Amino acid sequence: MVMATVKVEDQAEDGGADADARGLRESALDPLPVSVHASLKEEEGQPSSSSGKLRSQFIGMGFSSKLVDKVLQRHGDDDSNTILESLLSYSDLQQSGSESSDSFGSFFDNDNEENNSPSESRKGIYQDIKPELDSFSEKWSFLLRTMNFSQQEVDLAFKQLGDEAPLEQLVDFIVSAQSGVPSGGLQTGDATNEGKTELLYGVMEKTLSLLQMGFTEEEVSSAIDNFDQRATVQELADSILARRIANSIEQKEIKVESDFLDEAETDYSSYQPSYSDVSYYDDDNNNTRVKRAKHIFIDDIGASSSHLGDPWSMGQRAGTNDMSVKVELEAMTPGRRANVQGDLAKPPFFLYGNVVEVPKDTWHQLKQFLYNVEPEFVNSQSFSALTRREGYIHNLPVEKRSVVVPKSPMTIEEALPFTRQWWPSWDTRKHISVITTEAAGIEQTCERLGGMVRESRGVLSQARQMQIIHQCRVSNLIWVGRDRLGPLEPRQVEKILGYPYNHTNLFELNQPDRLAAMKYAFQTDTLSYLLSVLKGKYQDGIRVLSIYSGIGGAEVALHRLGIPLKCVISVEESEVNRKILRRWWLKTEQTGVLRQHAGIWKLKTHVIEDLVKEFGGFDLIIGGNYTSCKGGTTVNTTMGMDSNRFYEYNRVVKRVRTAVGLS
Question: What keywords would UniProt list here (predicted)?
Answer without folding.
Answer: DNA-binding, Methyltransferase, Nucleus, Repeat, S-adenosyl-L-methionine, Transferase
